Amino acid sequence: MKNKYMFGGFIIVIFLGLMGYLFTQSNIKYESDFTNVINNDKTVKATGSWVKEKNYVVDRESKTFSFYMADENGKQMKVVYDGVMPNNFETATSVVVTGTFENGHFHAKDILTKCPSKYEEQPIQSSSL
Amino acid sequence: MIGSIVLTAALVLSIIAMVMYYLTFRGYKNTLNYARLSYHAMAILVIVGSTLLWHALLTHQYQYKYVYSYSNGQLSTGLLFSSFWGGQEGSFMLWLLLTAIIGIILQSYSSKRSDLEPRVMAVFTIATSFLLVMVSPWFKNPFEYIWAHPIFINIQDINPQYLSMPFLQNFFFSDQQGGQSFVRMSTELYSVLSAQGIAVNNFIIDGRGLNPQLLNWWMQVHPPVLFIGFAMATVPFSFALAAMMKNEYKDWIRQAFPWVLAGTGVLGLGIMMGGYWAYEMLGWGGYWAWDPVENSSLIPWLIGVASIHTLLVQRRSQQGGNSVGRYAKTNLILCILTYVFVLYSTFLTRSGVLGDASVHSFVDPGMLVYLFLLIFIGSFILLGFGALAYRWKDLNAKLPEDENLLSRELSLFTAAVVLGASALIVLVGTSAPIYGQSVDTFFYDEMHLPIAIIIGFLNGLSLLIKWKKTSTQELLKSSIFAASASVVLTIIIVVLSGMSNIMMIILTLSSSFALIVNTEIAVKIVKNNMKMLGAYVAHIGIALFFLGVIGSAAYSEEVDLDLVKNKPVQAFGYEMTFTGYQPIENNTKYAFNIELKKGDKSYNAAPVMYIAEFNNSLMREPAILSFFTRDVYFTPNGYEEGDSTASGESSVVSLQRGASTEYAKTKITFVDFDFPAEVRDAMMSGADFEIGVNLTVESEGKKQNTRVAMQNKGGERLLTAAELKDVNIKIQLSNLDATGNVDLALSSLDGVAIDPTEPKEEIFSVSASIKPFISLVWIGVVVMVLGFFVAVGRRLKESLV
Question: What is the rounded CA–CA span in Å between residue B331 and residue B313?
Fold first, then answer.
């Protein structure tokens, strides 16, 4: 019996199983169509751009930051983020928010902002460590 | 022009070197000298090309698109130097430069070791050739002229004396929304300028510059170190293929070992530098986000570390004999995979597939580059695994012996498997965005917790288990000290910290076990044999790192504080007082001072906030108070000069010209700026000036005009507010900028008359957190890298075969 294959194989099988399970538990899909986001109560990463015509609001009391996002079809939704306005929000052309749509708006737990044709995108801001 | 010629010539030479080396391997006589000549000439040309790029950056040659896009006149010399790798083209150049230089060292090294040179260099030059194609005029050429493809240049960057010239009028373009004007630079404009005898770098006098988050010294250090690590991964790959070319698998182990150790060590250092950068500068309080691009550089590191352990077994089992040792196939596979994953990492970062997933990824580079990246990685996968398939029968000729269950050989193999499992986990999570999926970071955390626990115990045990065979009694006897000491240490830690999570406790036990076993052995051998310390020091490093991660990641606490000026607040056992702010760094940023007192000790922390000109956004920098047992971390959230008698909500709105907002049943419209020509002149000439913001306020059918302003008196900037008693609203101007945007802070008045002599309340909002033992994270990494290099020293001596 090849000891090393047994040992290695055993460990690999256990981990593959665990990994498959955890992957399904932690899976978050990317959604570029907001109709899917709104009709869903799963956590998703919604991609789109923020609507500059509708002003963003910084609420110091509840420590939230809200704005409107539009998807590729022009459908809009309100996003409320538990935290401060991300550093490069003003000039961001597109935004990816992670969270769930409930009570009429999207609760974001993190925001990724992207600037046009620059070297890099801006840091993910998370409301939890 | 000359830059492109230099790089193209280098490409030709690289291919010649590759061919010449291959012919030498096949037995041709005079080709070795040509090969060496071509390689060195290629390396010299790459150095020349890099120098040309640095020169162009340092002398602001904006006729080059790369120089315009990633540098400007405000960068310090150090940062200007680092703008070399600010964009795609430059980062490929950096990789190429470092690879070429490493090749010079490799050539010298391999020439002293029997017939190694032609084989290893023939493979190495395939890599340099691919990189040279990447920076050639067909793909990502750093010397591309700015007019080669149409590009919009902000008029701020154009020499003002040409702005009113008639020939330029057709090339203007205005962005209505952003309120900015551009000149469209293209081959047409270039011909017009040439006809007028105007040099492009006289026409364009400033560049776009670097993203503000790159404007610190980490930008000068992290990418180069990281790329040295990447470039060095080319070497084990070349060694593996060289072995397969000759169909001999004994010598390459000792020859390659120091390179694998050095490359993996440097790569690990580079990766954690990125983590420290994020921690110190970005303000989200962490050092590792499991960002797909970060992860993609971790994978080759994990594979590299795995290969070190299996290389060790092969080397040990070959000692004193003439036959090939154990795990010959595994070592070939792992060394091939290390470089393949470096290429995969590059592919993920640069191809645009991770566009929505990562903070670091470049934007879509276009179909051509995307395809070339695929061909690059595909060729190396084919080369590596093709050769392996070709030699598979020969590799299997000698039947492997079985290992004993309790043997170091098997433990090391298990170590490699566990590290491989970790790499697989990271690979799966990182590649998920390619398929439109992603994973929450807890995927990585949960999967790695058991792995980290296993690594700790396995590491300790494997060093107590002897080579070939150990009896169970022997093992129990030698582990008794470490086992009991680690239990004691764990109990102390659990009691002092109040740790209650069972997984964390087990992980602490496992890390302590590894720490103690390694320290025990290190202490025994330090007197006689310092150079043998490498592995033990490295393992001590990783154990400390794990303990640091447990403390800082699992037991951090955070609290949001609104610090009113000069009013102390109690948090985390400190008395914290916001004492005010002052401008720093030539008035470009503001530091907000917090005084901390604990007992009779006092400290100072000053987080920074500023508006970056680059993108007109609020930027934040944290302040960190570091102690051995904890870091006190401050992230600035905001600052308000409140009205001491104001109550109720205030909100900040950002308005474009013509836009309105609604506040407390009142409609406020930003009409336009009051910025006539005289004021503009005053501003240009440095005199006092005032830019007005005209607003209309409508409520209950009544409309009135009002005005707020930005005044500049004697260099001091003052933003005024309008207080409208009849609608109970105060409009404070908080910012205005050249894009035509104004920020207004709206709040309600109480109807109480404001006493102008009463001081306004200054409130600084900050998130304060405590990170226990995060110092061990950094100390652990440094100790680990030190261990790597001690090992390099030892293996270098043994490598002369």
Answer: 10
The C-alpha angle with vertex B160 and arms to B159 and B164, in degrees rounded to 5, equals 120
Question: What is the mean predicted confidence (pLDDT) over B189-217?
Answer: 88
* Domains within chain A, CATH numbers bracketed: 29-126 (2.40.50.140)
Of A27, A59, A87, the CB nearest to B620: A87
With 70 as the cut, is the pLDDT of residue A56 above it? yes
| Burial per residue of B244-256, b for 16 or more beta-carbon CB atoms within 10 angstroms, e otherwise | bbeeebbbbbbbb
Nearby residues of B61 by Cβ (< 8 Å), 6 or more positions away: B55, B67, B201
**B538: pLDDT strictly greater than 50:** yes
By Cβ distance, the residue of A23, A87, A90 closest to B428 is A23
Please tell me what DSSP assigns to residue B407. Answer: S
Task: Give the nearest chain B residue to A121 (CA atoms).
Answer: B359
B564 touches chain A (CB under 8 A): no
Question: How many C-beta neighbours within 10 Å does residue B365 have?
Answer: 17
H-helix segments, B534-624: 534-549
CA distance B169 to B183: 9
Pairwise CB contact (< 8 Å): A18 & B447 = yes
pLDDT of residue A118: 40
pLDDT digits (tens, 9 = 90+) for B381-393: 999 999 999 999 9
Looking at the structure of chain B, the number of domains it has is 4
B30 C-beta neighbours (distance < 10 Å), count? 10
Residues 6+ apart with CB under 8 A from B245: B25, B119, B122, B123, B387
Residue with tokens 């910290």: B497
The torsion angles phi and psi of B477, rounded to 5 degrees, stand at -65, -45
Query: What pLDDT score was predicted for residue B665?
Result: 76
Q: Is residue B227 within 8 Å of residue B250, measured between CB atoms?
A: no
B8 shares a domain with B129: yes
Do β-strands B574-584 and B569-571 pair in parallel, antiparallel, or remain unpaired? antiparallel
B232 and B117 in one domain? no
> B150: closest CA among B104, B180, B182, B105?
B182
Residue B454 sits at the vertex; the CA angle it makes with B452 and B456, to the nearest 5 degrees, is 70
